[in-house]
Amino acid sequence: MRQNSGDSEQQMQVHLDSLTKPKGSLGKLETYCVRMAKIQNRVPPVIRKKGLYVFAGDHGITAQGVSLYPPEVTYQMVINMLSGGAAANALAGGCGWELAVVDAGVAGDFPPDEELKPKHRFLRMKIGPGSGDFSRQPAMSRGELERALEAGKSIAGDAETQGYDLVAAGDMGIGNTATAAALLTGAGFTAEAMVDRGTGIDEATLERKRATIKQAVEFHNTPKSGEALLEKLGSYDMAMMAGFILGLSGRGIACVLDGFPVTAAAYMARMIAPGVSDYLFAGHSSKVRGHKPVLDAMGLDPVVSLDMHLGEGTGALIGGHVIELGVIAANEMASFAGAGVSGSSGDEEAY
After folding, report:
1. Which residues participate in catalysis according to the annotation?
2. Hey, is 172 helix, strand or coil?
3. Whether pLDDT at 196 is above 90
4. Were 210 and a residue from 29, 31, 195, 228 both cysteine, which residue would form a disulfide, CB within 3.0 to 4.6 Å?
5. Residue 148: which CATH number?
6. Structural domain includes residue 41
């Protein structure tokens, strides 16, 4: 049932307290329900369809040897995902999510769909064949940034057209943890807190990655604005993710963030429009060093913490599934009155 604006949180709590359980006994599941009710302006909230968007792009910074894998792996993993063979495919299927892969800036041309035969939707939104090496030049032009942001906003429109009540953002791109760390270092976090091993680089590569990012941030001396940081230190996929998050505003759709790269893009979106945090959830706390400090700065409490650091939206899928379980309980449990069960006597841990 739709509520008057501002009433949904209070009415959702009343609804939860009326169900056949001690007050507050579902813990954070109840918190998620209240947040979902506020986002949807509906009591109880509903999750009828869920969609994962995986934003793929290549990163010019890999030319500086900051990643364990060569850049061509991005293209290969997109093909794998479209064929159904990635971890995101397995978890999406297991948790009932639809999946769409977005080519935001992969350095390679994909065959047409009739030849590729993708098992999932493939959104061809390529801004360019990989962003610039931001240690030597801006990651993109201002025009490319604007195109990427607008493309992301159009994907938010796609989510509404698809009828999604909950979406998740995932990433695929060799070098994207370096880009994420650069964006966040430019935003004011320390490089020491943000730079991590990514896919598992050794100590020497880690030091090179940290030094490269510090030098790049100093080289650009970028104003602390989301747009400026994305233009100088970002990438096409990061900018498109930021646009996607910005474009969800006012649509009544909640968004679950995945790990460090996605959260960096969300942080840029938040710098542009602070209100985006109102409809964001942190799906998980990644094992990547910089993830938790950024979530804390955004005021987002991760749903699960499983020591994951895969990407692809995998942590967001699991966290989103937990959120959905809370919504299902709120919709399917009986009330005390409806079930003929006596109400609470004041003991919150027992009937």
Report:
1. 312
2. strand
3. no
4. 195
5. 3.40.50.10210
6. no
